[in-house]
Design brief:
twelve-stranded antiparallel beta barrel; Outer membrane phospholipase (ompla), Chain C; 1 helix; lipid degradation; mainly beta; metal ion binding; metal-binding; phospholipase A1 activity
Length: about 280
């Protein structure tokens, strides 16, 4: 598949789940417009981390760096039917053999998407969650036997399940992937669960889990300890441990266990779902 790729996205009406009754901040619908849906913002976390494997020997060839950039742009400030917002996203994740001779890149994964977002309120007009419906493409921009790509329709839901814990659930329906990597879903499955728990005002624990669609242990578990650099900022120091399959596309079927540390800028999109007394 060539680096230059084109997708046609079709926006559809979002089907929403029932309201989840949890505690929330005193935030009205009007106040959301420039906060949880700013015109331009970080989408997924942006970071630069580096580290070593724990499943094999440590050397210049096995140590690496991983970094990610991600943003979201509203297409229009006008609210669409069913109180939704239309946006586009772009995420790029790179794996860099920075310590090896000539410092080559292992792989770069490109992930554009288009979606609808809808805030969810309870009967008191307080924010209790956020739902996103998206169409996404992900590929490594390579051709021949090294090509990896897949497309998906996804639905995600974000809410607080306690004063200190944020839950995110995402499920996807994959399509147009079997020509490049027919075994992919055996390793990444049909969804993921993400939990972020505030241990203290300065320290967070994040857990992310995926499970392949087979009756085996193929999947992944990613854990992160995230420490705030300063108050009232979205900049942190992060320690990450990835264990499992599917960290990148080129080697989705190869087991990896990587311990990395570095700098992260966290997305602020879901901060409004946190209790007011915590940051």
């Amino acid at each position: 598949m060539p680096i230059s790729f084109k997708l046609s996205f079709y926006t559809t009406i979002i089907a929403l789940l029932s309201f989840h009754q949890v505690q929330s901040q005193r935030l009205t619908r009007d106040e959301l417009k420039d906060t949880i849906f700013p015109s331009f913002s970080i989408y997924k976390d942006t970071y630069f981390i580096t580290g070593v494997p724990t499943h094999t020997g440590i050397s210049k060839e096995t140590a690496d760096a991983k970094y990610q950039i991600s943003f979201k742009q509203l297409i229009t400030r006008h609210t669409l039917p069913f109180n939704t917002q239309l946006f586009i996203t772009y995420t790029q994740k790179s794996f860099w053999d920075v310590y090896a001779f000539s410092s080559p890149f292992q792989e770069v994964n490109f992930n554009p998407g288009i979606g609808l977002g809808k805030p969810l309120f309870n009967n008191d007009d307080k924010l209790v969650g956020l739902t996103e419906f998206k169409i996404e493409h992900e590929s490594n921009g390579r051709d021949s036997i090294y090509s990896r790509s897949w497309n998906s329709i996804s639905l995600s839901y974000h809410t607080r399940i306690s004063k200190k814990t944020l839950l995110s659930i995402k499920t996807w329906f994959p399509f147009s992937y079997k020509s490049d990597n027919p075994e992919l879903i055996k390793y990444i499955g049909y969804g993921e669960i993400n939990l972020v728990h505030n241990i203290s005002n300065d320290l967070q624990l994040e857990l992310n889990a995926k499970k392949g669609n087979q009756w085996n242990w193929k999947g992944s578990l990613r854990s992160r300890l995230i420490y705030s650099i300063a108050k009232r900022t979205n900049q942190y120091i992060m320690l990450e441990w990835f264990n499992g399959y599917g960290e990148n596309l080129i080697a989705f079927d190869k087991y990896r266990s990587m311990l990395r540390i570095g700098y992260i800028i966290r997305s602020t999109d879901l901060q409004l779902l946190k209790p007011a007394q915590l940051r």
